[in-house]
Amino acid sequence: DFPYLCFVGFQLRDHLENITDTTSGESVVGVIDPRDIKIGSRKYYRYLGSLTTPPCTENVVWTIVRKVRTVTREQVKLLRVAVHDDSNSNARPLQPINWRTVQLYRPNEKEEN
């Protein structure tokens, strides 16, 4: 199996290297149509939460696909460099769900055809 990030319809390495190059100022990396991302299933979970890194901003929409995917160590390394993340894990432990509602989206058969 190919790692998941290879399927997102663009060259991850090229985009991340452009993002991490801070010497040339801003650069246009193009547009990615989220409909081009092939996740293998149209079923997913969604909830309103917060960022995992300080300042842990609230009202972030999280979307989680049902099937676990893999990424390579190299892809993780490139992503960390792009966001300047020197940590080895999330910035905080698992938080209580509190009032949040987790919803499962399942398109009906007509929508899938």
What's the average pLDDT?
72
The CATH topology is given as Carbonic Anhydrase II
Give me the side-by-side strand order of the main sheet.
2-1-3
Low-confidence stretches: none
β-sheet strand percentage? 15-25%
Outline the biggest β-sheet.
Answer: 3 strands, antiparallel
The first-level CATH class name: Alpha Beta
Query: Residue share in helices?
Result: 10-25%
Gyration radius, rounded: 17 Å
Order of helices and strands: HEEHEH
Spatial separation of the terminal alpha carbons: 26 Å
Name given to the CATH homologous superfamily: Alpha carbonic anhydrase
What coarse outline follows from CA principal-axis ratios?
globular
Number of helices: 3
Domain Alpha-carbonic anhydrase: 1-106
GO molecular function: carbonate dehydratase activity; zinc ion binding
Pfam families: Carb_anhydrase
Family: Belongs to the alpha-class carbonic anhydrase family.
Brief account:
With 113 residues, this protein is an alpha+beta fold. The protein contains 3 helices and 3 strands; from the N terminus they run αββαβα.
